[in-house]
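Q: Entry one of two.
A:
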Amino acid sequence: MSPEVAGPATAPAPLPDRAPPGPGPLFRLPGLPSWWRPWGATALDVLIAMGCAWFDAQFRTSFVEEQLHSPLPQGWAVGLTVVGALLLVLRRRFPAVVTAAITCGLLLGTGSVLATVVAFYSLARHTPRVRTVFVAAPVGLLLVLGVAVLHLRQYAPHHGTEVTQEPVLIVLVALTGVVVPVLTGLYPRAPRQPWWWEHRSAMLFDVLLVLLFPLANPVALVSGLNGPDDDPLLVPAPVLVLLVMVQGVALIWRRRYPDALAAVAVILIPLVLPSFSILPVSLYALAKYGASRRNLLLGSGAAAVVLVAWTVVATEFEAEQFIPYSIFLVVPSVVVPVLFGMYRGAKRSLMVTLQDRADRLEREQHLLASQARMEERTRIAREMHDVVSHRVSLMVVHAGALEAGAGGPGVATDTGRLIGDMGRQALNELRQVLGVLRLDDGEQQVPLSPQPTPEDLATLVEESRAAGMQIAFDVIGEPSATDSTVQPTLYRVIQEGLTNAHKHAGNVPARVEVRYRKDTVRVIVENEAPAGPVPTLLPSGGHGLVGLGERVTVLGGTFEAGALENGGFRITATVPLR
C-alpha cells in the first residue's frame, strides 16, 4: 500500500492593512459633511433655521419703516432677516461666522431676534476654543446693545416711551439676547466642579446673580420709601453707579470669601443706599458658608446698627417714620437672610457629614473586601500546597521505584495503578479548588467531596506506607463528632508531616499519634534522621509549615515544629474542641 502524498501547502491569505468598515448608523445621510451626518442633528438644524426665519420675518414685518432704524428698505431688511436665519444650518461647523453675520445684519435693520439667541447659544456651545467665546461674546453684546439703543431712539418718539423704561428694555435685551444664551451654551462645557464651586450649577447661579443682583434685595422691590427724592446721596451719581457695579461683581466670590463680602456690604451701605446694597445676599452667604459664628454675629449686628443709623438720618429723627422704616429695613435685610442662611448651612453641614460617612464606610468596605480577598487567596494557596505537595510527592516516590524496576511485573502493575489513583485524587482536589475560582453565576457548582473523617486518617497513613515508609499509627481516645472544623486541620497536619518526611528523609521510620482529650486533640508526627543522602529529593517551597501554623492558630490552638536531638523532625499541633 503506497503512502499518502501530501498536497501542496497553501499559504495563508495576507491580512488586510485595516479592518473593513462595518455597517454605519442607520440614520446617516451619505454625502453630507461629517459634522452634519447624524440624522437627528440634521433635522434639528433645519427645523431651527426654518422656524427662526419664519418668526423673525413675521416680527420684522410687524413694524413699519418709521418705527425701526434701518438704512435699507423694508423688503431688503426682511430678505436679509430670512437669509440670516437660514445661516443657522451651519451653526455647528461655523458658529463664530454665523454669529458675526447675524449680529452684523442687525446693524442693517434686520429683525433677527430669535436667530440672535440661537446664534449666541451655538457660539458658546460649539466653538472649539472657549477663549474665543470670551472674546466674541462681549463684542457681540456691545453691538446688540448699540442696535437696541438705535431702535429705541427711533421707536420712542412714535409711541411715547418714557426715558426711565429705556434702561430696563436695554438690560432685558442684553440678558435674553446674549447673556443667558451664552451661559446656557457654556454650561455643558464647564467642569463638574469648577474652581471653588461645588458644582457647575452653583457657578451658573452665581453668575446670574451678579447680573441680576438688584433683584436679590427684597427691600428694593417692595419698599416705597426708598425713592430717589428721599434717599440722601453721599457720593455723586456716577460714583454710585460704579460702586453698585463693583459690589455686584463681588458676589461671584460669595461662597469662597463670605466674611470679606459681608464686611464690604456693611461698609458700602451708606454709599450705595440700602436699595442697591448686596447686604441680604452677603449675610445669607456668611450664615451658610461662614466658618465662624462669631463673625456672623458681628456682621449681622454691625449691619443692623448701620441700617438703623441710616434710617435715623433718612427720616430726620421723626419717630413716626423711624420705627416702621427701621423694622422694614432690618427684618428683610438682616434677620430673614441670617435665619435662612443658618438653616441652609446646617442642612449643608449635615449632608456633608453624611456624605463623608458614606465615603468612609465605602472605603472601609473596600478595605474589608481586599482583606477578605487576601485571606481567601492565602487559604487557596494553602489548599493548593497541601494537595500538590502530598499527592505529587507520593507519585514521584512511586515513579522512582517503578523506574528502578524493583519487584516483578505484578509490583510494577500495582505501583502504576497506585500512581493513577493518586493522580486522580490530586486532579479531583485541584478541580474543587480551581472550581471555586472559576465559578460564575451561570455555571453549575462543582460538587465538593466530604470533609475528612477519622477513618481518612488511617487511609492517609496507608498511602505513605505503600510508598515504602514504616509508620507507627496510634489513636488514643475517642474522636469527638461535635466539631467538624478540627478533622480537616488534623488531616492536613498529618499530610504535611508525612510529605516532609518523604521529601527530606526518604523512607525512614515515622510515628503518627492522635490523642483525643476532653477539650483538645493533639497530633504528633515525627520521623527519624535519614541514614544517608535522600535519593528522591523533591523541591520545597518552604510555606507548608507556615500554612499549618496559620490553620492551627485560627482555631485557637498551638503549633510547634522543629528538629530533634537525634536528627529527626517533629510536628506537634494542639487544637481545642468547640
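Q: Entry two of two.
A:
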Amino acid sequence: MTTQTTTRPPASTVKVADDEIVIRISRPAPADGGGSAAASGVVRDSRADRLAFAARVDSFAGVVMWHRYAEIYSLLQEQCAVAEADPASDVFGRVYDPLCKVAASYAVAAGVRQCTAERFVERAVACAERIPAVGGLLRDGLIPDAWFARAVEQTSLVDDLALLALIDAEIAYRLQHLGGLSAARVEAVVAAVVAEHDPDAVTLTREQIRDYKKVMVNPLTEGMSELVITASAEDVRLAKETLDAVIAGVCPKDPRTKQVRRSDAAMARLNGTAFTCQCGSDDCIAELSQEQIDARCARVVLHVVVREETLDGTADTPAVLDGFGPISAEHVREIADRPDTVARDLDLGDLLDHQAQPGNQYRPTATLDTVLRALFGICTWPGCTEPAFATDLDHVCEYNHDDPAAGGPTCLCNLNPKCRFHHGLKTCAEGWIDDQIVDANGVIWTEVTTPEGFTVRQQALNTWLLPEVGLIPCQHAPVGAGVVGAPRPESRHAENGPRRAQSRTEAKHAYRMARRAANRRIREEEEARALAEEGVPPF
C-alpha cells in the first residue's frame, strides 16, 4: 500500500529591518500525479498554487513601494525642516519649494520627468498623511500601486482632515472585506465613500469637468488623427450606446472590427453622412436605413439606481450610474431633472411576495431583475467590468427545466449578472464552479473557482446602496423538495456520446455542496479554537 502525502510550499515571507528588506518568495513545485483520487487532489492543489503564484506574486511589490514612499517622504520632511528653520535663506522658495526640490532630485535619480516625480512625492505624502489606512493596504499587498494612485486622485479634493480620516478608514475597511478586488471595484468603492461623506469633493470634480468640456484633435500618424470629446458621464455613456445601436445594423459579412465600425459610425453621424455596410455583397442584409437606425436608438436606455430619499433631497446617499459607477446625490438629481429622464419606483416589498414570474418560474420579476443588477453593478466574474444592465442573469445553481423543484430556484440567493462570455464559460467549459452565499448579516457574496482549484470570493459591489436586500427572505422551497424520497432520474448524453452517472449540472451541485460543507467545518473548528484560546466555554 502506497501512502501519498501533499507537500505544500513554505509560506512566502517579507522581513523588514532597519537596513534591508528581505523578500522570500516560494515557488510552487509541480506535484507528481497518478491515477488515484489522492493524486488528483495533489495535482489540483499544485495547479492552484501555480496559478496563484503567476497571478499574485507581484503583491510583494506593494511593501517595497510603501517603503519607497516612506523614504521619499522622510527626505521631504527634512527639506521642509530646513526651509522652516531659516525662511530667509532661500529667496526662490516660492518657486522651488521643498516638494519641488525633492521631486527634482528624485527625477534625476529615477530618470523621469519633473511632473512624474512630483506626482510620486504627492502620493508619498498621501500615503503618510492623507490616507495612511489605504496606504497600509498597499504595504500589505492587498492593492497594487496603480490602484493606490487612483485612490489618491479620488480623495484629493477632500480638504477637511478629520473627515478625510473617516473616509480613509472606511475605504480601507470596505476594501479589506470586499474580496475579489480589481481596479474597477477599488475605484467604485472609493468613489462611493467619497460621494457619501463629502459630496462637495465629487461636485467640485464634476464642476471642473463641466468647465473642461471640450473637443480635442490629436495627430497620431500620417493620415490619422484622434478626436477626443469630453462630456458628462451620462452623455458619454448614451453616445456609446447610440453608436452600438447604429453599428448593430451591419450584415454579418462586414469585415470591420467593432471598434472600427464605431469610429466610422461616429464620423458619419457628426458629418451628416450615411453609415453603410462594407461587405461589398450584392445580397447584403444590412438594416441601416434612417428608420431602422432610429428604431434601435429609441431603445437605448441608461440606467441609474438611486434611493428615494436621495431624489427628494432628504438624504445625500450616492447613486449608481450603470457603466460608470457611483455618482453624487447632486449629480443624480440633475439627471432626474433632464427632460428625457423617466423615473420608475422600485418597491423592495414586492420581493416578499414572489421573486419569479408566476407564469414562468425560470424568469425573475422585473423588481428582482433590477435589484440584482443594481446590487452587483457589474458582471460578477472576478476582473470583469461589463455593466450589469448589459449582462445576462445567471442561475448559479442551474435551473432544471424538466423538474424545477430539483434544480436551482429563481430567487435572490441564486441569481447574479454575468456577461455573455463568462455566462457561457461557466455553463459550457469544464471545471468552472461558482457559488453565491448570503451570510448572517445579509451580505451577499459570490465565489468563482477555476479548473485549477483557485477560488476568488467577493462581496456584491453595491451592498452600500441596497444593504437591506440580503435580509429579504427567499420564498422558494429547498432544492429537491419536490422529489423527496425519489432519486433524481439518470442523465444521458447523445447516443454517440460518453455515458456518466451524473450530468455536469448534478456533478457541479454535488461538488459545490461538498466544498461548502468542508468550508463550514473548517470555519467552525477555527472559531471553536479561537474561543478556547480566549477561555470562552463552548455552548
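A: Comment on entry two: The radius of gyration is 28 Å. The chain has 18 helices and 14 strands.
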